[in-house]
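Open question from group meeting: does this chain pack into something compact, or does most of it stay loose? Before anyone orders reagents, we agreed to write out a predicted structure and look at it together. Recording both the input and the output here so the notebook holds the full record.
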Amino acid sequence: MTNEPQLANLILKALTILLVLHPIAAGLAFLTLLPVIASCCVFHPAPWIISLVLSVATTIMSTIVFAADLALVLMAKHKLRDQHTVNVTVSFGNGVWIVLVSTFFTWAAMILLAARVCYCCGFGRYDIYPMPYHMTERLICH
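Structure tokens returned:
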């Protein structure tokens, strides 16, 4: 696309940095999963809170990765539209759609984790830790 080798090297370095973000986002998603798995063995709210904090970072990273992929495809389409000597087409491939779906599910998981940690939207404290029988007698109105 360009005859200047310095500009081509700069573009390749930027593209490499952009593509390195994908494994970072995948690693953050895995790190978010580990405290949730640990919460199956430990009945304490700390793993859920750690997972929520990690999911916020994962959501931000996956959104940045999706925006960068989208910008890359749109810019390449725009630049190649002006070039009439190059017989190359650019389209939204499987990668962009996979990142879009993973970003959507990451946002959904973060919202569900927030509801679980904050005990809202039907995720009550007594759903997880059942109330002892002797405490239920106080709730009955006579």
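Observations to bring back to the group:
The chain has one domain: 5-139.
Residues 96 and 142 are 62 Å apart (CA to CA).
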